[in-house]
Task: structure prediction
Amino acid sequence: MRIAALLIVSFFVLSLFPMSVFAQTTTPSTTPSTTSPSTILATPPTAPAITVTTDKPSYLVGDTIVISGQVQAVVPGTPLTVQILDSNNNLIHVDQIDVSSDGKFTESFLASGPLWKSNGVYTIKVQYGLPNVTAQTTFNFQSSITPVSNVFKVVDPNSQQVFAVNYTITGGTVNNIKIDAQSISLIVSINSTNDGSISLTMPRTLIDAKTSGGQDDSFIILIDGAEIKPQSESSDPNYRTLTIPFLQGDQNIEIIGTQIIPEFGPIAGVVFAIAIISIIAISTKTRLKIVPKY
Result:
């Protein structure tokens, strides 16, 4: 009878409390946490211990390669080691450079010498302090500059006569060749992407340089207004040939002679004679002394 009474009491208690109440007391809560596990584990990105870059993506033989970068943790008095490897992974250059107090560094290297002989992708490796503090970058290198030969047709603006000027250029391209009758010259416009040279074979019927006795004389050569000497010059009865060096960034080469196209010769002489007569007349009237320039 006692057992039956206990069963009746238990049934009565269960009927008062739904099963969901007991389920909530035993089932873990499914409510999302206000703090995501990924947020807890994430850490802010850190800057690389060392960086290195080049000023250009590609270079030709004779170019200057400029590298720069930064070290995050500077150790006073510790140099940075730089290695350059060619396309076959051969070490062709090694050097040590200083790092400034703020971690920045920069250095330049000349891409020239017997070890700079293979074309392809070259690698620059830098190391600072511990062996694992390293970085690297790459650049394309061309060990030789291919000369370009062509013929430029120079047109006389008055007679429309065409003159063929043969040229060979390294380190750039020819944009234009035109006659400047007023200065008795040819103007050669170039796009010089590197230091190089240009060889021009010019017909004597187009431009020439003669002494008063009729012998060949030297041309005056100006590059962007500055006078230079040719690397070489040669001639035959019909042509004059000049080889002229230039630097990267040069634009205009002016070749000045004593005559430009026969029809301009007499005109230039008449103009020159008139100018001399005018100067004499003015100096006579004003007692002006003409001091020659040296």
Remarks:
- Residues 16-29, 265-273, 282-294 have pLDDT under 50 and may be disordered.
- The first helix runs from residue 2 to 16.
- Residues 204 and 239 are 5 Å apart (CA to CA).
- The helical segments are 2-16, 19-26, 37-41, 261-286.
